[in-house]
Fold these 3 entries.
Entry 1:
Amino acid sequence: MTKKHVLLIDDNDIDNYITNHTINKSQIAEKITIKKTAVEALEYLETIKEDKEEFPELIFLDIRMPMMDGFEFLDELIKFPIVVDKHCEVLMLSSSSDQNDIDRAFEYSIVKKFMTKPLKKEMLEDL
C-alpha cells in the first residue's frame, strides 16, 4: 500500500540515507521528508497540522536523539488532532533492541511496529 507522505526522523545521516533509499526502492511512498531532530520534525508538523493531504501518514522514528528523544516526540505528536483522528502511524526504527524501549514504544497506540536498524526492504512487506 503506497503512502502519500512518509517522514523520517533520525539524527544520523547514514541511517537516513539507508532508510530513504530502502523506502524509495520499495515504492511505498510518493513523498519522503527527512528531519534530523525531533524538535525540527515537530516544528515542521506544526506548519502542516491542518492539511490532511500534506501531513505524513507514516513516520519512521528513532529513539536516541539529542535535545528531544523519540519518546518525548511521541508525547507531543499524540496531541495533534490529525493524529488523534488516526491519520498517522509511527514505526520505531532504532539501533536499540532493549526490551524496555520496545515495551515503552508500544505504550503509545500510534506506534504500529518496532524495528531495529538498518531498515531492509523485507521489513516493509507487511505495512
Entry 2:
Amino acid sequence: MSNKHQDMNPLEQNTTSFNTKRLVVLGAGESGVGAAILAQKHGFDVFVSDFGAIADHYKAELTAFNIPFEENQHTEDLILNATEVVKSPGIPDKAPIIKKLLEKNIPILSEIEFAGRYTKAKTICITGSNGKTTTTLLTYHILKKAGLNVGLAGNIGKSFAKQVAQENFDYYVLEISSFMLDNMYQFKADIAILLNITPDHLDRYNYEMRNYVNSKFRIAQNQTQEDHFIYCADDPETEAVIADFAIKAQIHPFSIKKEVANGAFASGQTITFNLNHSDKLTMSFSDLALQGSHNVYNSMASGIAAKILDLRNATIRESMGDFKNIEHRLEHVAKISGITFINDSKATNVNSTWYALESVNTDVVLIMGGVDKGNDYSMIKDLVKQKVKAIVCLGKDNKAIHDAFEDDVEVIVNTFSAREAVEVAYHLAKKGSTVLLSPACASFDLFKNYEDRGNQFKAAVREL
C-alpha cells in the first residue's frame, strides 16, 4: 500500500526510513503480537509491553520469534525511546503511557496502519456502529466462494499484520473499529464501507457525537477517484455530514427507502443492485440467509462490494443464500418449554439491541446491562413498550436501566451472574415468548468479554 499513501500525519515526519528503527508494541493481544512479528521481519528492533497479563499462547509465540516482552507493567525507559509505537485499539488516549508518548512526539499507529505499509493487496474495509462483523464475514464469504485469494482480518480473525508477514493474499476484508481508525493516517481502503453511525463508545470521544462521526469517516481518508465508498443513504448521521468530507472516491449508496443510482435499493421485497458498468442483479429478501431489515442493509453493502469486484451474479446470489452468521449475534440457543432463548451478547450498544428487538416477533424477556458507555436508551423505548414484558439486569450497576424503563416495563430484576439471569428470565417468560440476551452494554464488570458473557449464557440455558 506504500505507493498509495498520502498526507503524512505531522507526528510521522521522522518515519521516512523504517528499517533499524525501534518499534514498541503496546498490548500483546492478537493485533499486537502480529505487529511485532511483522516488525521483526522488516528489521525493526521490537519490544512488546502489556500493562496486564499476557495470555500463555501469545507469550509462547513471542518467545518462539525471540521478541522481548514484558507484562503487568509499562517500563518507561524501554518504551519512551521508541521511533514509533503500535498500540492496541483498546488502550485509550488518556492512559498515562500514551500521554507521555504524545508529549515526546513519538508517533502512535494502529496495527492496520503499520501492516498496510507492507502489502499491495486490495483492501475492502468495513466500519459502522452496528453490523460490521456480519458484513465483514459475509463479504469474505462471497469473495472466498468466488475463488479469490482473500484474507480476513482487523477486528476479527487473525491479525492483519501477522497475515501480511506470513501469507500472500491478493485481497483482505478488514473489519475496522473507530479506535483503529483513530490511529490510521496514510493507510487507504480500496473499497470502504460505512454501514451506519449511532452513539457508541462516546466515553472515548469526550461524549461528543461529532468526534465519533469524524472518526468513522476516516475510513474514506486518502481515497482517490480509483477507489470506492459504500454507505447507507438511510442513516441520518451519515447523510447529515457526508458532504462535509469531500469524498474523492466513487460513491455507492444503498437504501431500503428510496431508489438510488450506482448502488443498491429495495422495492417491496426485492433488492436491486444497479452499479454503473455492471450487470443488474435482483434478489428477493426471502433468498437472503440473513433476515431482518438491518441484515438487508448488511447484504446490500456486501453485494455492492462484490459487484465492484465484478464477481458473477450467480456467485453473489448463492453466497448470500448459504451464509451462516457468527456466534453471539442473534444466535438461537435452544427452545425450552416453548420459550426461545437467543444469545445476542455481541450487542454492546443500544442500537444493536434495537436491531435485536426489531427482529423478534414475540413477547420478550430482555436480559441487558453491564458497563454503560454513556447509553441513550430513548431509541429503544418504543420497542420495549411494544414487546418487552420484563427486563432482567445483568451487571453491577443497573440504575440507568431502571431509570430509563421503570415506567415502561412491569418487572425489572437485578442479577449478578449469567446463571441467575437465565433462571430468573425463564421463570418470568411464558410459553411462546423469547428470552433475549442483548445487553446494550460492555461486559467487563462481570465477564472477560462479550464472548465469555455469551458462552456463560448458553451454558446456563442448557442447564435449565
Entry 3:
Amino acid sequence: MEKSMSYRDKKVMSMGTVCEMTGLSERRIRYYEERKLIFPERTSTGFRKYSFSDIEKLMDIAEKVEEGVQTDEIRRDYRKKETDAELKKKMIRGQLNSHFQRSGFK
C-alpha cells in the first residue's frame, strides 16, 4: 500500500501559478530545473506540475542566489541535507530495531 502523500508534496500547480506565487519568471524557474535544483513532474502532454514544497524551495533558491550563492553550492547543500536526513532515519530505525530486539520483540 502506498503512503499517503502530504498535500504539500502533491504536484498540482502549473508554471503560471508558480510564477504568480513566487514572482519568478518561467525562464528563471526552468533555469533552476536545468541546474537540478527543482524537479517538477511532467504531464503526458509535457506540462510541468509543481507542489507547495517546490514553491518554498524555489523561494529559498531565489533568496540564496540573490545573496550571491552559486547554484552548484545550493545543489550541494540540498544533497547534503537529504543525505543527512536519510542517515538520521537509518540511525533511528537501527536504534528502534535494537531496542525491540533486546526487549524480546521480533
